[in-house]
């Protein structure tokens, strides 16, 4: 059995699910998700995460508490468990490609971030079906889907702020994509495709409106309500992002997946040339071949 521990936001969850799905397929083995990390979170924290991946059509079941304990504490069991712990033991597993992970057999417990398409690129067609939005959630955003489909050349623009700005520790590492990055990316894209419609996704729409000089043909998705009257959620936003023709992403796994799940031939993806400021974690494989990297000023 393959068990993968899911943690973080939706983008991280998709990477973690993808590596577990790919390994289980390779081994012709059972695959389950460990969601225990989302239980008992401190509600006073400014950013409480939830397993949003469950709003997609994932086929893996959730591992029981007993199964999780058996995998995390394998002492006394005859079966060998291969456990990848990203931050406590093997920091190099934070993002980069390590072929040995995909060679493991038997009972395997994976904990990490695995931010590299090499883990799952060979089974992308099957994996992409796992990440289709559930029918009721898809119906809820049908008017916005139709609007994007009506656009001549929709371009998704993702600006992530949130904890990248408010948390000093996280900001020191991840607060990279400033106004210069977005202005450069927009100019480069215009040189290549000419006219486009901009579809904006952000956790701080007010900041975007006040700081980025965007064209009149701009539609702000984040904060919009679906047919149900509820504000659309992360899984719905990511689905809408993937429906655009081209993408300008942040240094964020959320918009990485929004661009990656767009299966159009000839898509253009603009990505930051620097993913974070850390010297401990390698991100050299996070940008897929063919994506265009925009230099970050000062680096």
UniProtKB/TrEMBL annotation:
Question: What GO terms fall under cellular component here?
Answer: membrane
Keywords on record: Glycosyltransferase, Transferase
Q: Does the keyword Ion transport apply?
A: no
- Write down the InterPro entries for this protein, in alphabetical order: Glyco_trans_11
Named from the GO MF annotations, one term is: galactoside 2-alpha-L-fucosyltransferase activity
Q: Which GO terms describe its biological process?
A: carbohydrate metabolic process
Q: What is this protein called?
A: Alpha-1,2-fucosyltransferase
